[in-house]
Amino acid sequence: MDYTRINAKTWDRWSSDNWIWTVPVTHETYVSALKGEWEVLLTPTVNVPKEWFGDLTDKKVLGLASGGGHQGPVLTAAGADVTIMDLSDAQLATEKMVAEREGYAINLVKADMTQRFPFADDSFDLIFHPVSNCYVADIAHVWRECFRVLKPGGRLLAGFTNPDLYLFNDADSVADIRVVNKLPYDSLANLDKPSQKKRVAEEGYQFSHTMERQIGDQLKAGFLLKDFYEDFTTDDSYTLSHYFPLFFASLAVKPADPHNI
């Protein structure tokens, strides 16, 4: 099953519905970023620490699965040479619209991150990968490809979902919360269940991934973990956010000399 294409169409639909993560930054936000006043998100509510980026001037930055005009415009205004790789036509179209609106050049690449990335080894200084690997089954491949296309000393900034979120139903109140899934959650399984079919139709194919896969496989790919934070996302859109952090973010570095760490 070509589930990633189905997920891309799901994102296209969300874009047409103006879901928050498909609505681009404003002109005012872009202008502020040109003045050095900017923030970006890997997870829904916690701004990424500025020290995670280093000096972005003329740095080659890959926005991995980060179309939609959220981070690309801001990182461009901060001085980076940005490439956006995404599989959603709508998200790439929004990215192009913002670039044309603000008058800057950006590289847009339609590609599937479950496949080999369409870039040479050692191409980028930094990869910005907001929450999105919940839409692919094999994230070990994603981390290996990130390691390959980063230059020695390059940085991987990644956001991802707390796997525990997938244990529960989508409850509107605390009283209605129920454990309904076994971890790791795999929406390709049990498609014969009506509830699973309904969830896939609404949310696309998703995968919870263990922390061993999220962090351990970054380390196995060769990265060094440098920093980490939690995002509790304490708003009314997530009932569970009052009990545990729903999202995480990590900073990892490709060693300047992989043979001497």
Description:
The protein has 261 residues and is an alpha/beta fold. It has a single domain (3-163, 208-253), classed as 3-Layer(aba) Sandwich (Rossmann fold). It has helices at residues 3-16, 27-34, 72-77, 89-102, 139-149, 194-203, 211-221; strands at 60-64, 81-86, 107-110, 124-129, 150-161, 224-231, 247-253. Strands 3-2-1-4-5-7-6 form a seven-stranded mixed β-sheet, sandwiched between helices. Helix 5 runs parallel beside helix 7. The longest helix is centred in the first third of the chain and has 14 residues, at 3-16. The radius of gyration is 18 Å and the shape is globular. The relative contact order is 0.15. The mean pLDDT is 94.
* Mean of pLDDT: 94
Sequence of secondary-structure elements: HHEHEHEEHEHHEE
Q: How many domains is the backbone divided into?
A: 1
Q: What is the topology, as strand order, of the major beta sheet?
A: 3-2-1-4-5-7-6
**What's the gyration radius in Å?**
18 Å
Instruction: Enumerate how many helices there are, as a single number.
Output: 7
Based on helices, strands and strand pairing, what is the structural class?
alpha/beta
CATH architectural grouping: 3-Layer(aba) Sandwich
Q: What is the global morphology? A: globular
Q: Count the beta strands.
A: 7
Determine the N-to-C terminus distance. Answer: 40 Å
Report helical residue fraction: 25-40%
